[in-house]
Structures
1.
Amino acid sequence: MKLSEAIRVRTREAGWSDELVERLNESALSDRQVLNLLALDMGEERTSGFLKLVEDNPDAPFGRLSLRFARPTTELGIRAVPGEHGLGMQEINIKTYGEVPDVWPYENDTPLGSRPTPGSYAPGSYSVFNKSEVWCDGVDELYDRAIRERWAASTDIDWAGLEAQPDAIERAICQICTTLGQHGLAEQKVISKWEERIAYGFHDVKIFLATHVYESGRKFEVLRKRAYANGGGMMQQGLGTLYRAWFGSLKSTEMILAMDVVYKTYEVVMLEALAELAPLETDRQIFSKILQDSQRHLEFGLGHLQYYMQHHRDAGEFVNHFLTRAEAALSDELHHSRGEWEALAVVFASGLEKTEVGLERLRKLREDQLRRYLQTLDSLAIDRVAKVNPGLFAIARDANSVLATAQSTSS
């Protein structure tokens, strides 16, 4: 096939010899194939080698290769430079490959930075295409931190350091492990359900949520192992009304706020207390490891809430509805999950001999949880003091009376 003058100009600019150009001119290769060979920048010797294969094997299928991948419509010449911790997500989110549109335009598995292949663009199961519904600035760094801070329940916990302790305390620890482990299982299910709905273009969020799923499963793993490791076992299941706000979320933002803002604020404060007050060093180590993960989840939740408030048209009204439902579910769970209350009081009192001390510390914990929650929202210019669920206020003011109510209700 005769080469066009434009292609001949390109070959001269590439430094190809007249001999090679004439061979190409007499070959079966099309202008487009030659243009793609030029884009591959293989040099004259390698191009000549490919041309010889085509000449010697005129019926071979590789002679009909279009090589169109050599000239994509995306940005080329990108070189990512490793940072302090290696080649992380922040290092590769550069130039156009780090620009996430406000609305993702593709309904299939097209990754950010690429384009759909013509003729094979079939839609997938995605339903979340608006960036404001999932995004969190800095989520790529949160993902990298999750990878750097990963730990294994089997080998990173000093299981040999477990010591015998009074039966009441051991059973209380096992009850706390049961309750928190149950929450971890629910977290896994809910996040996994939303993973498949989020469009591929928001891959930073998707892979961070994947670490969230893994860490929630690891939380259940380590707590279940702890329950069986020192003569205890799994205890009473929690009420589970907390999960109504998670499973019943109609928007991804509602799920994130319910789990990673409302609940995680309360969980972080409780884990901080357990990491300090649990009698055994192994238990303090376990709760510290889980705390590290939960703090990262809370950072994601707050980061998303901030982005949502700044970029979603109806954020002011919607956020109040989301928080109201999540607070109601948490309040109901805290009021009626009697096992968690009693177990925390026993651990905080170091036994049954000074239950009044444990109950006062429990009341202080509930107060600290509510205060942290309100202060955290206030830092994002969200004033919930007048709107927060009254049940959460009641628990913070007088945990003893609420516990007595729960006991009489369950009797």
2.
Amino acid sequence: MSADDDSGLNERHRKRMQRKKAVIDSTMRAAQHDAGLLIVATGNGKGKSSSGFGMVARALGHGMKVGVVQFIKGAIPTGEEQFFRRFPDEVEFHIAGEGYTWETQDRSRDMHKAEAGWAHARRMLADPRLGLVLLDELAIVLKYRYLDVHQVLADLRARPPMQHVVITGRAAPAEIVLAGDTVTEMTLVKHAYALGIRAQKGIEW
């Protein structure tokens, strides 16, 4: 590419970024108030819990206190549990599961664990000292109707106005998606598991 061609490309890029900046600046000017957000990460792709725990780390970086209830999981200690339990003054962490549903195969026991987990969650959702509450894998619990989605929504609506809540898990019910302020669906493109590579520490758990 000649110097003239490169110069023309740079100028077109500059003008395109100018137009983009004007649009973004206008959007940012229109968004001027703060509120506690309900964030939902769902879908079949990998990264839902990873996203949730990334927001936990981000909140801690800003000096916020965080509550975590991890539903479904619990058969083995996850990397996130082992890490965030190092900060007991900043993170309240509860496990509310005994393993994936296809492993436990006990609906009544899974429901009991979910109800116990929601008791912790409800207390957290009433605590204005917690800036962020992560309800990891709650979507699966609601999918299998281990908890009443309408009661869950009522507790979410009653939380402190500036408290953020993150819900993760596949197959989030329509009621949760509708209530969410920011909803992301993780789409599976491909996964190493299909190549015969098993779940590994630091990646899946």
3.
Amino acid sequence: MVRVDTVYQRVLAIANKEQRGYITPLEFNLYANQAQMDIFEQYFYDLNQFSRIPGNDTEYSDMVNILEEKINIFESSVNITSTLSGGTANVGGISNLYRLGSVQFNGVEIEKLEHKDFKIIKRSPLTKPTLERPVYYKQGNILTIEPLSVDSVTVFYIRRPVKVEWGYVVTLEKALYNSNRSTNFELHDSEETDLIIKILALAGITMDDQALYQIASQEDMKNTQSEKQ
């Protein structure tokens, strides 16, 4: 977890070093959430890329392991009861759902199929789904499951990071940090520098400060290249 106040103070210190302008708490919160989502979503692109590359035997430098550790923070699960008519479960109500993982019934993973395969598999007595070998297909937020006697499922998923908030109280017309009103970044501690760089780049665009934007963008690019070497 990265402390939101630490990031804000460092962003202010860098932005104000050459009198570039003040970043308000409202502006910071907007930039902070955008930066957090940019980094979070990049995990999955990077994981796909590095999964195609042979890893190494070093426990603490294998990129796939590092990315999976960062993603694991957001793994969650929820039990969903099927509808009374049987055979369907709605995942639309899952809070902050980002990506659907496995779906299980009584500890047995339910196989995901395409709709056409789902219809075909039910026709043959040899492939007909059973409680020991259930299947489903997904259409929108609805999971259609066979056999119909599956009355509840456990859904494993990746959730979105919670919304970041630098909370404050106003004293003598000055915003003072208030931890009780604040929400920290949920990203791994190692992302603190990247968050600062990305927030500065966004601030540079808003303040029409090309120098600040270019410096932050160059640092961001340098970090990305270093990570992927």
4.
Amino acid sequence: MKTNKGFTLIELLVVIAIIGILSGFLILSMNGAINSANDAKRKSDINAMRKSLLVYKTLSGSYPIATCRVDSACTNLQNALVPTYIAALPSDPNTGAAYSYTSTDGTDFTVGATLSNSTGYSYTASTGQGTTGGSGAPSYASTCAAATNAQVQCSKTDISTTEEVCSCTYLSGAGTTSWTVPTGVNSVQYLIVGGGGGGSLDGYWPGGAGGGAGGLLQGSSLAVSGTVPVTVGAGGASFTNGSNSIFGSLTAIGGGHGGNRVGGTGGSGGGSICGSAIGSGTSGQGYAGGLGIACTSSVTGSGGGGGAGGVGGDGTATVGGAGGPGIQSSITGTATYYAGGGGGWATGGTGGAGGSGVGGTGGNTGTAGTNGRGGGGGGSQYNTPGGAGGSGIVIFRLTH
């Protein structure tokens, strides 16, 4: 009999299965090799950027200031480094996207990539070493709103896709809360203003003096980590100093009250009456109040409260001293004045203007300083409570 030799169907299926399994192992092995090669190139690219940045700083004195997300071009860094310090900015071998780069003040930088296993790899100049771990994709979740409680209101404003501003204002009580620093943020810009001092509760016929503005502190790089304490200072009532504002280790002193003779001392000092001593300000935060004219007639002007940007005005025979000027800042993205002093009052004359439109104006009933700006209260007429100081504010601007 003639016999036909060949493979059975089961044998063919077994062979195909074996080939499939071997192919799978081969593909996995190849993918692993490709991923390892890509990760090695990422670290090599970051090392090349590190070297070019170190040379740039040696010659220019600082690193390029820029914040570059992994999914966007980095024009500032490109203009600074290419082609003098590096032929071209490297990009991810898999996605073609630029590597992330952050330097907020030119003294330090971090450059990073996302590895094949979705973890992050970054190099920071200050530590001098690369770090692997964490999420490869940057997190832009804000904790600003979470700082709000019954005493403080914190609200977020987006400046760009990578920058936000958190403004914390006074609601009640001691004005205390805390802010949890987001992952990847290690420093912030800041502006802190204490509560403004109240205008005089005057028991003398010349008229009340203006309250001093809350002390003002600002800067471009404050180290932050973990949970940061926040206190927003309340404005002072008539003849009362404003309360301090606190952010982390920094304290902006509340403004000094308008003087019942002698001006109060604070972030900025309160004005005086009848030629008595003016209130002094705190160095680096505000200025002294103005001097009231000696009480020699029934028409006498009291001094204005000091401001963060200058001293309060002196009173004259017919006009109360103007409040000292505040300081303008664009930390929120809009140019705004903070910490102007309150104007003094002149019996039978004219009240002094509040500093920079922030302090209260002197008058028969002095007006209050502006809340959220730390303005001093305006001075009032005889036996009438002076205007209250405006509450302070804590503002911090962060780059993700």
